[in-house]
Amino acid sequence: MSPSVPGPRRAPGRGRRAFAATWWGQAWVTSLEDSSLDSGRLSRGRTYARKGMVGAVTIAPGQVKAAVQGSRPRPYRSAVHLPALTGGQWDTLLDTIAARAGHLAALLDGEMPAELIDDARHAGVPLLPQPTELDPECSCPDWGHPCKHAAALCYAIATTIDDDPFVLFALRGRGRDDVLTELRARRTAGRPVDAPTAPAGIHAADAYAAWTAGAEHDPGWPGLPGLPAHPAALPVSPPAGSGLVGADLERLMTDVSARATRLLSGDTTTLHLTQHQDAVRIAASSPGPEWFHHLIQNTGANPTTFARLTRAWRHGGPTGITVAERPHSPEPSAMAAARTALTTALAEMTDTPVRLRAWRNRLTLPDHGIQLRLGPDTRWYPYLQENDGEWWPAAPADTDPVTALTAIWQRSGM
Questions:
Q1: Cα angle value 302/303/307 (rounded, 5°)
Q2: HSE on the CB side for 381, CA within 13 Å?
Q3: Which of 45, 57, 48 is nearest to 4 (CA)?
Q4: Residues in a beta bridge with 38
Q5: Which of 58-62, 256-260, 376-380 bottoms out in mean pLDDT, i.e. has the lowest?
Q6: Where are the domains of the chain?
Q7: 3-state SS record for 52-98
Q8: pLDDT tens, 129-188?
């Protein structure tokens, strides 16, 4: 994957669809426009893109960046973030493509088959961006989300996506060469005809439902065993050359036992975790730097994103991850009430007016580097803007937005 690409190779005409001729390029533009409620800023963004005010574009896993010339002499730093796929999602996507020879042939021809997108979506893998996934940012003072500069970047990159659908793969985490190498390996790999088939097993949710049904209808159903005081030792060492270490397996055994006990006690919060969420859960238990590195490596996660989600888990568990990854649109009355409460509290906390910006489930104090996010559990999750410009979870959530704010007010340096 090339670290940067030039601007659009053809000058776009008028209208929204002028930036994308293909259906997948138009899907990118639609995701941008569906994520914004400000048609004026989108219109100015299209104008900026047509005038060639977007500089060289840098594409990396999970983001696209460019300098965008605005009204000031110095260009602004604009970016658009898109969640990278996890290792498990990549395996599913690549298996889906490899299952049909026509998918790969179309991609090599510069086409994105609609059937590929449908198959991937049915398997739970979003290749094309959803409206809630595009997360723009910019160094300009504009409060818009997106501002006109980030919107211009989105429109400009649509033409590149038009010409090369592999750009979408790159934004999701893997470049053309990596994807093609993996696909070739899948197409050439074969299983011996007489190879035994592994048992299908039982889904954890089904096993839990069967256990709870038995416990409810049988008074003599055995109770929960107590956890051992010390982790159980493996009866034998792992085979030489397997790459497995006994201490690591013992740690996983202890983790599984603890999860099973919590599950049988009625705590189902970890029952439906995805692979990448479970990796974050393990990392949040502070297993050490070596485990942290291996979890990132084996899931294909972006290290910074993984670290941010680990902190989100420590402050809010599975819901904390949801709040970190996916903005949503709550009831307007809830946001209005919180904004009123914060405005009143801020008037008492400082002598100077404080800007308060609202977008979807987020209330941001841009001059103070503070953000509160309303979770689906109706709690407010505090975030601080770190030196890297990204928003990081900063404290446990609270049902009261003022309490959530005061928990990090001093830490913001105010």
A1: 115
A2: 27
A3: 57
A4: none
A5: 256-260
A6: 4-188, 232-237+244-268, 269-326, 332-412
A7: CCECCEEEECCEEEEEECCCCCCCEEEEEECCCCCHHHHHHHHHHHH
A8: 876 788 888 999 887 778 899 989 988 888 888 888 889 899 999 988 888 888 888 877
